[in-house]
Amino acid sequence: MVERKVKIFTRFNRLWHWSQVISIMLLLFTGFRLNGLHELIRFQVAAGLHTVVALALLLLWAFVVFWLFTTDAWKNFIPTRRGLWQVIKYYAYGVFKGAEHPYRKVFHRRHNPLQLLAYLALKLMLFPAIWVSGLIYLAYGLWSHVDGASFLLQIVANIHILSGFAIAAFVVVHVYLLTLGHGFRSHVRPMVTGFDTVELTPEEEAFLKTSEPWRLQDDPEPARVQG
Amino acid sequence: MTRLPLVLPFSAAVFLGISAAFAQQGTAPAMPADHASTADHSKFEILQQDFASGPEVTAACLSCHTEAGNQVRDSIHWTWEYEDPILELALGKRTVFNNFCGNVASNEARCTSCHVGYGWDDVREAPPEQANAVDCLACHDRSGQYTKLNDAAGHPPLDPVPEGAHTITGELAWAVDLSKAAQSVGAPGRENCLSCHAYGGGGDNVKHGDLSSALIAPDHGVDVHMSAEGANFTCTSCHVSEAHKVDGSRYNVHASDPHSAEMAPGARRDVTTCQSCHTDSPHDATITGVRLNTHAETLACQTCHIPEYAKGGVAAKTMWDWSAAGQMRDGKPFTLKEYIQGDGTARPTYTSAKGIAEYGENLEPEYAWFDGQLDYTTRSEVVDPDQPVQVNKFGGDPDDPNARIWPFRVMHGRQAYDTELMTMLASHTWGPETDTAFWTHFDWQKAITAAMEYLDEPYSGKFDFIDTEMHWPITHMVAPAEQALQCESCHAPNARMAGISGVYVPGRDWQPATILGLLILGAALLGVTGHRLVLLVSKPKGNHHG
Fold this sequence. Notes:
The complex is a heterodimer.
Chain A: E1 2-7, H1 11-34, H2 43-70, H3 84-92, H4 113-138, H5 140-143, H6 149-178, H7 184-193, E2 195-200, H8 202-211
Antiparallel strand pairs in A: 1-2
Helix pairs in contact in A: 1-2, 4-6, 6-7
Chain B: H1 10-22, H2 54-64, H3 68-73, H4 76-79, E1 82-84, E2 89-91, H5 108-111, H6 137-140, H7 178-183, H8 190-197, H9 235-238, E3 241-242, E4 245-246, H10 275-278, H11 287-295, H12 301-305, E5 316-321, E6 335-336, E7 339-340, E8 346-347, E9 350-351, E10 355-360, E11 366-370, E12 374-376, E13 389-390, E14 392-394, E15 404-418, E16 423-424, H13 438-441, H14 444-455, E17 463-473, H15 512-538
Parallel strand pairs in B: 5-15, 13-17
Antiparallel strand pairs in B: 1-2, 3-4, 5-10, 6-9, 7-8, 9-10, 11-15, 12-14, 15-16, 15-17
């Protein structure tokens, strides 16, 4: 095993992440406005922005799903229990003692097991809950004639609002965890540059050297393809 | 070493695409500005005569317009009677009471001054039967000098005009030139309709709140349809008619009109609704417009597009307390005019004849679910003295596809009721020749007894005054689009939709999910703060980057 600086976040990956960051921030900001938690912008602007950004984010997700399953990227998201306990122990205890994070990123496994579980819950439960409820809400005009439509809308709205707050809570914890260990800047940098230090098996290193040399930042051979 | 990828918010690009895809406009069909008549009535010999009375003019009209009289006599403008098909009640001006002047019966020649006829002096009977008792000129005079006396059962002031006589609009009467009026006839203009409908209840905008003399030549902001800069509509541009039956009932209102624009040949012409021109989805197909079209399934158009009524400098009467009437100063009836309205006119705040009055301008309506059916309390109904008597009642089930949230003007009154029988009482207010009229003798007991005897309705002899409320659906004085209500006019706590049930109004009240969500978010913030505090206290070694 060797540690190498490897491009683990491709350009699309980073575009996805930062577009999602901006979108979710806008959606939370406008969503809070629509629920009367602040009045910094006009209701109409908030409603319009919320709708447009949400539709754009949905389109992005459609591309993401396509990209995940047409590349090997989906393999990053296969859940595992291996090492989960150590990571939990680290955040609950080790971090206070100055311990090193127990997880070593490997190629195709850039998340630690706890992180992975959180992201899976986000992607498989919260995101579907918010966009399904959001689309039903948005399409109210198509089903407003059914009996008790207004009450059903209120239920849909409550599911939507609750999912939104759960995502907001995720964002809080997500950002906070970036500040632990090696610190915020060092944790954010890979999502900016794409490169992070991961452990490679000799086979992986050999494969990347020959097939995807652009992934290796300090590769002695000149890069032929830029990612 | 860092190559910052050019991260555009994905949304921006898609936003442009979506906006472009929906950028098409819907506009209301244009209305003809005026009706180009095929006849110049000044050329008709029969109209070139010196008419001695209104009925003489009508006889001339009917010599050509053979069926016009019968058509009018079959309309509510003539009968003042409305047989409610759902409530199976006889309603209409002849019968109902209100909390303005109260009742027509026993006050005829005054109240029937606005009847579309001549000489109806007893509303216990149907209007006069003579064919020429119909008043054509009230609606069709275009000379501008036709009017009716305010106390002559519909007759116009003619030479010689009685000393101190007034017209139905409250002006000192002048001698009407009937020949000139007859030769001028045409389709009704705004001033024709408004000379009666703006002055209901005995003064400018006393009754409707959204119908006043301000609509004769309104500013754009007062009424977008009727202003000269706008569509320059007359009343009949919207209040379509067939055979002299004019649409737009206050007894059975079109609370909604789920039909699209039906201006095609052969389509029905009997509806006075916004939708009949604007369709039921009138907003542009933008993100906001689509949402507003969905709102139109819940709200009447008027709810957003008439943010205020009693506009244009003419105040509406908002409260009428009859119980204070009858006070004298130095033994004489007196008047106080302490409300100066927008156009500078002083309005009576106290008169010995009518009691205390309150006024308001640019008023915010109240809102309620409404399915169009108005029910009226009658004088035979027992009332509860512990709460305001609802002169008219209405309902609307949020699940009824025809019900909408409507704007209302609420008129507050205080008027006489029978403390034994617990029923509302009529009163004989006008009658300068009688011994009992309140406006002459200022004696309630006499006035009430006379009216109840006249009506042949029971009266115990004991009366007091009771608070009353009357609801008027607001539908005139439509503002230009840019002055329509904004989202936050309703989507905010304690805003215009406060108190409206059966509908989910985002931003009005916190949902259970909002509270639960805030708790979750709070727990997350508390959790990370606690974690950070423990981290700071334990001061781990080796965390040199943190």
